[in-house]
Specification:
Elements: H1 2-9, H2 11-46, E1 49-53, E2 55-63, E3 72-80, E4 90-94, H3 98-104, H4 106-114, H5 118-121, H6 125-157, H7 160-175, H8 178-189, H9 194-203, H10 213-240, H11 245-253, H12 258-286, H13 290-295, H14 304-312, H15 322-353
Antiparallel strand pairs: 1-4, 2-3
Helix pairs in contact: 2-15, 3-15, 6-10, 6-12, 7-10, 8-10, 10-12, 12-15, 14-15
Amino acid sequence: MQRSVWNTQRPGGARLKFRTFAAFVGPSILMMLLFIAFPLVTVFINSFQVTNPVFTTQEVETCTPGFLTQTCTTEVKTIPVIGDDGEVVTVTEWVGFASYANVLGGERAMSALAGFDFGALLRIDFWKALRFTLTFTLFTLPFVLGLGLAIAVVVNNAARHIKGPVIFVSLLPFIITPVIGALSIRWLFYGDGIVTVWLEALMNTDLSIAANGWAIEFLMMFYRVWHVAPFAFVIFYAGLQTVNQDTLESAIIDGASRWERLRYVVIPHLMPLIVFITLIHLMDAYRAFEEVIGFSSESYRITLQYLTWDYLTPDDAGNRAVSSASASAMLTMIGVVVLLAAPLRRTWRDHRGA
């Protein structure tokens, strides 16, 4: 026994433990460096660079059909330079914060802010996307938390034989693919959708929901709550199973109502889970993209994630604004960090207090 203990305390044993630790953690660290850290550094560098094709001027002679009456004209055209590999030659220039200024609106944004002309500011794509992204994220958060907690409380107090079906039905919106879910809501309201037809018959008027920005915004928020609330429900339902029953019974004996038990016993117990769901929702909703595609809201409402994708869409010449897309992505990441600062600070404070 002493020999065994001595062997585990030798330096060789310590090296064995480190090798075991490295064998488990090493692949994860490698994947994080390869698929997270390296792309992030690349995007950060690209946001300060602009890559443009190299053009040259060349005289091109154009002749009309015919022999005796043939007319030829010479004009100077600008054409891209083709390399030996058959690809267009490009040059990369370091432009500093020019891409960030271009995304933020530059002089247009500065003049709008100086004149307190917020209407002109919101006509700039970035600020338009930022306004909707923040509204979309912060407005849907309390509904996701409230609806998820309400469903969890109802299911937790339901009879045993109906809990299974209720849980299954409640999870369906979360199981459906996001784009398919968005299209399902869209088909109910757009054009001759079932709900639109009912509303037109009830109000005796014609409705065109797809032509109203506020209606599209409402539907996008409604879809987000409908899609994400089941996730909050699952987390809260699991947390309700760990509530101290002795504390609840004591509250009942003291005459506490159902609302008072929920407010003073259940919600404080679930507070770490509330912070966790808040973190997940803020990160996910701030990077919303499926809603814009599913509801075809590009003309009315766009998100920061969609703006980044739009910069990467090739133009008529096949060029992509990679530098602007990288700057937009970095600004989106900064926004996520700012939003997460408050709940992370609370989590750290609770951890130190514990």
